[in-house]
Amino acid sequence: MSNNTSEKGSYAITPVLATAGSIDSVDTGKLETDDDAFEVFKRQGGEVDFRTVSWVYASVIFLKVIFATGVLTIPSSMYVLGALPGAINVLGWQFLNTYCAIIQGNFRNSHAGCHSIADMAHVVGGVWLREVVGVFFLVTYAIVGASGIFGASTALNALSNHAVCTNYFMLVATIAVFILASARKFEKIAWLTWAGFSSVFVAVFVVVVGVTQQDRPAAAPQTGDFDLGYHVIGHPTFIAGITSVATIFCSGAGTSAFLPVISEMRRPKDYNKAVYLCMGIVTASYLSFSLVVYRYCGQWVASPSLGSAGDVIKKVAYGIGLIGLLVSACLYVHIAAKYIFVRLLRDSVHLQKNSVAHWSIWLGCTFSMSVVGFLIASGIPIFNYLLALAGSLTFAPLALGLPGYLWIYDHQHYRNGCWWKVMVYYLNWLMIALAVFLTIGGTYGVVQNIIDAYARGEIDQAFSCADNSHSS
């Protein structure tokens, strides 16, 4: 495909050659329209209108996708890296994640028929790349869905003083997630995202205030001298360092989940406003909350961090944040299920029809993704390692590497432009190289950490009744 990008980066208008049913039947040339021929979900011809989300609601959905389980792990990552490198990692990764989110949204809004990151991979790499990216997408949101289920089971453990087997709590959380995730439209779960974001934000704020009011961390020895373990600059091993870096990266890397939401927005062109509002709030919150918790807890910070201020505050925080943890898992399961659902029904009349086939396939998708999330949460029951595994193995290529290539695909002319365009062009190649390094190095570090944790007895056997929420 030729690149028709002007010097200012605006896109030329190319006519639609076919109605956008399957992406294979659509002209994937650049367009400046949001009519039915361009979008996957039609406003006309279907019983169910999916395109009902305002940009404000979209921003709140994005907030809940990003500001979820990640904020609960950054303080313990700062202990490994030190306060200054940790803060630099938060700012640097959030900048790159915002940049990649904008790239993905702009690419999606200028190429017809794109519903997911896999569709965009098809535009730049053909069928084989779409299938590879589709598998990565499903694995990613299965893992982070598992982290939400695990976080909810940790909350139930804390509130009940570990009254029953941890896996029973995971099962209860999974059933709740399945029910919540089965709402078909993002608009219908928008009120859940408001409640979910508010609950997690307030829960974390309660912990932040709680840790500042204690003479010493709740997990530290309560008498005698103790080592706080606060370092401006840490000296981690490669394995510990890369795992912590991957965890911080993962905390804001769920931008590929934004793309299905665009397909349900009233005005997809308002996407950038929603992203900037979301990422601004997330970055400020991550930096301030994590620095305060690490400053007052040091090496005694819990993972998830809601347990860092003692049993009373822990129960209050988990009681407030439980709905947010469930909504996080609900969103991740919903996003993964929606990808499968659209792939299966894209060329069918059942995509937007209240039929038995429509509902059976939709509920089958949400149920299967909920079960996969439960199995992963039970198999890797340490919170940090779940997120670090997602960050290195799947988020790095999805949220960093592929967006870099999407930009290069649409901006080949930058290679022969003025000096700053050439620099930007090769900086995007550098971002792809960074994604490769994080994928290989990060996955190695996380897997080795998991092996070591099993060897040290920090993790009981998979599907055991032990409560591993204290492990960091």
Automatic annotation (TrEMBL):
Source organism superkingdom: Eukaryota
Residue ranges occupied by any Amino acid transporter transmembrane domain in the UniProt entry: 52-447
Cited InterPro entries: AA_transpt_TM (IPR013057)
Membrane topology, as annotated: Multi-pass membrane protein
GO molecular function: L-amino acid transmembrane transporter activity
A Pfam entry, by short name: Aa_trans
Protein's cellular compartments: Membrane
Stretches that traverse the bilayer: 55-74, 132-153, 159-182, 189-211, 238-262, 274-296, 316-335, 356-376, 382-408, 429-447
One of the record's GO cellular component terms: membrane
Keyword hit for Transmembrane helix: yes
Main location as per UniProt: membrane
Keywords, in A-Z order: Membrane, Transmembrane, Transmembrane helix
Similarity-based family: Belongs to the amino acid/polyamine transporter 2 family.
Stated name of the protein: Transmembrane amino acid transporter
Species name: Pseudomassariella vexata
